[in-house]
Amino acid sequence: MIKSWMAITLVTFLVAIGGVLFKPRDLKWAIQLRRPKWLTFEPLIPVIWTVVFICGAWSANIVWQQEPGSTKTWLLMSLYLLLEIVTVSYTSVTLRLRSLLVGTILGGAGVVLSIVLAIAVFPITHLAAGLLLPYVIWSPVGTYTTEEMIQLNPGAE
């Protein structure tokens, strides 16, 4: 029998890999964009998101363990999945459409979803809600950065 942590890890990994569906020409567009001067930690962003996803998967597993297979748990798993899909689609959709505005909207949706999920999970398990804090904290930073990039790159919105 497959353990819940294995299934959750596999789904998290597959969705993350699925988000890498942009073409090199799209990446070239993104590299040429101006960034805020305060964005000195850009090389750490992939590491930060990796930590955020690990915490999210760990949180989902803890929630699953509370009431495995219940309707409420399946609904929460759907919300975890939606949050990951929105997060992962940020890069590929923003690059494919070459639109920082779309990126800002997706980032904002991720902020809202992460807060809703943390609030929904909190009564079930405080630890799982706490593991969502990296997302709740980091997602607004990414969204704000994208919005700032719109100001620095007129025509890229």
Overview of this protein structure:
This protein has 157 residues and is an all-alpha fold. Helices cover 77% and strands 0% of the residues. The protein has seven helices and no strands. It has helices at 4-18, 24-32, 45-66, 71-97, 100-121, 126-131, 133-152. Helix 1 (4-18) packs antiparallel against helix 3 (45-66), helix 4 runs antiparallel to helix 5 (100-121) and helix 5 (100-121) runs antiparallel to helix 7. The longest helix is centred in the middle third of the chain and has 27 residues, at 71-97. The termini are far apart.
Defining traits:
157 residues; mainly alpha; 7 helices; 77% helix
How widely separated are the two ends?
A: 48 Å
Backbone shape = elongated
Order of helices and strands: HHHHHHH
Report low-confidence residues grouped into runs of 5 or more.
none
* Strand percent estimate: under 5%
Average pLDDT figure: 90
Number of helices: 7
Structural class: mainly alpha
Summarize the main sheet: none
Radius of gyration: 16 Å
**How much helix, percentage-wise, in residues?**
over 70%
DSSP E strands, number: 0
